[in-house]
Every structure is written in structure tokens, then in C-alpha cells.
Amino acid sequence: xxxxxxxxxxxxxxxxxxxxxxxxxxxxxxxxxxxxxxxxxxxxxxxxxxxxxxxxxxxxxxxxxxxxxxxxxxxxxxxxxxxxxxxxxxxxxxxxxxxxxxxxxxxxxxxxxxxxxxxxxxxxxxxxxxxxxxxxxxxxxxxxxxxxxxxxxxxxxxxxxxxxxxxxxxxxxxxxxxxxxxxxxxxxxxxxxxxxxxxxxxxxxxxxxxxxxxxxxxxxxxxxxxxxxxxxxxxxxxxxxxxxxxxxxxxxxxxxxxxxxxxxxxxxxxxxxxxxxxxxxxxxxxxxxxxxxxxxxxxxxxxxxxxxxxxxxxxxxxxxxxxxxxxxxxxxxxxxxxxxxxxxxxxxxxxxxxxxxxxxxxxxxxxxxxxxxxxxxxxxxxxxxxxxxxxxxxxxxxxxxx
Amino acid sequence: xxxxxxxxxxxxxxxxxxxxxxxxxxxxxxxxxxxxxxxxxxxxxxxxxxxxxxxxxxxxxxxxxxxxxxxxxxxxxxxxxxxxxxxxxxx
Lengths: 402, 91
Description:
Chain A is α/β, with parallel strands linked by helices. Chain A contains 13 helices and 15 strands.
């Protein structure tokens, strides 16, 4: 079976407009959660979130093209350009049919949907923008990446709520392993900080009025974020042959389904996904130096995830550093796993474990080695990234140093 | 107690009965919501129905159910909580 490596990474998220900027913020433990500035914000119960501040689409796209790009596609393209730039991939007719795109996303083009609904329902207008459908469709960001880079191989978008990115990345790696492609752009994107998107989450009564403080005894819920991260996955032999720099090995992945509840997480399903990713990567629990937790900051997730880590890791659970960077960049929903993979790369490549912010009081139900407050220097040779979605769909990725 | 208060009690019990898929006449104030099969998601739906029916806001966060300062564990305590919200709205 072919080995899969990461040769490029790109992002735009609340912490930064590049991977380097994001890493700086993660090193500093900078929290990007704050007051939101959107229409009708005063009607939100908890008007906070982690927005990509100061993003100017016209600096990245010409006006004609912008008419076709919802914010979630804009994010994906900006991230994709950085990733392919780092990987040194240009338009290459020989590569094209062997290259594809699989992104994760949950909400589709929410800005476009919100604007369209406002126009016809609230505004009483009888027409919407002609490009409403191509802008809001869930596969739009993946499609725009294929056009941007001329990739004519297999491409689609994966939707599994908060695990979308990890499912996408795992699926992209599987296609390379199976020989269906040599290069895949993968990751995830989300732009759900719209009035409708925020209201929908508010209805579930799990959102925090104060901030995202995973694993803290006094945590009070999750906070939404937005943004994208895109990676270049490549067959190892393909990367070596063209002399590309390998950032990390995508050593393994696993996907499981709880088959129990549409919203409540399940320890067994989460543990099975971690165990599966370890087995797929040929790693033992003791090899893992860092887990980027799903860590949403809800009571249900954090307790279940910690119990799942204990179940999957056994005695090794006490020796692994755990943090949730959602405390910094918020919950990017379908884009979460992609941005969180950057924290794993930071640990593997720079020896820095990004901290969990806002942990004021230890929760006895989360008695693991939670890295909190400030970043921690550490030598990490292997890391896991967890994503456990509504629907009971779990996807875990295992990265190792090259 | 006025008729209005009885209305509140009747309406809240009707909401809880619908959520529990039981006959309203079978519910008594001592019934625990959990025992009626109303789990955390059922409670969120119940609160939504209460808010829409009485035009009030229930300060409830599923991550910290006690933090809102309201006891929503039994049929009787939910009725009392709604009474309090409705009367503070009228005040």
C-alpha cells in the first residue's frame, strides 16, 4: 500500500491568514473569540464568535469571479493557493488527471442562503441573485479549487457536520493509497457566522455566552468560528520523485459510527476511532505525544472524549499531552478538523503544543494532561487529531514526522 | 390563585404531556421529567414550546442546567418556573 505524505498547507482562519500567522497565534495562545459584527446581532442570545477579521475578498479575487464565490469558497481558495504554493504545484497536464479535491463542509454557502432568504421572505422581493445556487451548493469550494489548479481527477465535498474535514482528509488519503490519485487537495471550509447559522446553533442551547473553555469545570458551551485549511496530500513516491518537501506523514486514519444518538457523543465510538487510527498507522498508544482533542467545551463532549481517550490509550493516557485549540479559533464546524490539523503540524514540526485557553478550574471528569494557559515545548513524533460529529460520526487522523 | 395561574399550569402540563407522549391527566406535580422519558433534548424542545407559548425567555444552557437558577426537574417545578417568568414579564 502506498504511503501518504503532506507536502503543503494553507489556511485562513480567525487566528491568521497564513499557516505561519496561525502558528504564531497558537504559540501565543491568542484567543480570537470576540463580539460579532453582523446584521441583527442584537437579536442573538450570545453575540460572540471567532470571525476571520479584516478579510477583503477583493484583494484575492477579481469582481467577475467574486460574483460566483460565497465566503466559504473564498476561504477555500485562499487556503488552497497557500498550500499548493508551498508544495510547489503548478498547472501540469501530466498531473491533472491524477489530482483531485475533497473538502469537508457542513453548512454550504450560508451567506448566500441567508441573503437570499432575507430578500424573498423579509424583503418581499421576488428575485434572488442569479448565481444563488452555484454559490451555495456544498461542492462549490471543491469545484473552484479544481478550476483554480486544473485538477481533473476525483473531486467532491464531504458533509459529516463537525467531522467533515477529518472525513475528507481520511478519504483523500485512502484514494491515494488505493492508487486512484497521486495528489489530493483536502481539508475543509466553513462560513456559518450568519444570523441564520448562529440562530440555528442558539436553538440547541449548547452555545456559550462567555467563550470556549474546553475541559474547564466551569465551561458553558461552544463558540462558532469560521475559516478554512487546505492540505496537499501526495503519494510518498510521487513527492520524493519531484523533490517536494515532506511536512509530515498522514500515517493513518479511521472512521466509526456510534449508531446511537443524533447529538449525544458516545465513548465507545470515539475510542474505536482513535484505536483504529493508531492501528492503521502502525502506532502504539505510547507513541503518541499529542492529541488535538475535539474539545468543544460542551459538558457532553469533553467528559465523553476524555473517557474515550482513557479507553483507547489505557495506561498510556496519562503520558499524552492533550489540548483543544477550539478555545482559540472557535468551532469551525465542517472546517474544524482541517484548522486543527495545523496544531498537529505545529507540534510535529516546531515542537510546540498549542494551549487550551480559558481553563480555570480542573474538571475531575477530564483528568488528563491538558495543556492549558501557555504553549508547551515538546518533542512530538506522532499526533492524533480527533473529530466527533453530531450524527455519531467519528473520524481520527494520525500524523507522524517525516 | 387566579384562573390565570390555573391556565399556566394547564398549558405547561399539556406541553409536558405532549413531549412525554402521555395523557395530560396522568401527569402529577411530583413526576420527574426524566422518569417521563423527557431527556436533555426533550427538555430543550419543552423549553422552546414554553417560550413560544408564553412569549418568555428561559435562561437555560444545556451545559450548565443549574446555572439559570431554575429547577426544571419535575412537572411541578417547571410549572412554578414558568409562573415566575410570566409574572416577572407582567411586572
